[in-house]
Amino acid sequence: MGKIYEFNINPFQDFLFRSLIYDTDISDKEYEADIYVGFVTILEYFILNKDDIQYLDYEIKNSCGYYKVVGKNVISALWISGIFPKNIKQVLVTNEYILNNIKYVFNSKTKKLISKSIKK
Known about the structure:
Number of helices: 4
Strand content: 15-25%
Number of strands: 5
Structural class: alpha+beta
Helix content: 25-40%
Low-confidence stretches: none
Radius of gyration: 15 Å
Strand order of the largest sheet: 3-4-5
Largest sheet: 3 strands, antiparallel
């Protein structure tokens, strides 16, 4: 059985999902600037230092109608996942972030963000 999509959990997913609803190929280079502007607009509501927008670096891949958004650094990967750390410089140094007893680790080679539950 499928899962019902829930809005207002991750603003990046909401933005991309709405784009797909209107039949936009979000991987098409024609929409690249529009999507970037949308992402920056979202970030302006969540980040304290507007200069940190420079860390927004991602790629959208389309494989037979299945889209994958890949953050090219730990900050982008967290943002795209709906996580907005305040200590960006530290996260960039360690490539990891802890939130609500979950440790997020970014693999720079594979560009994957992995989450692990931290036991108390």
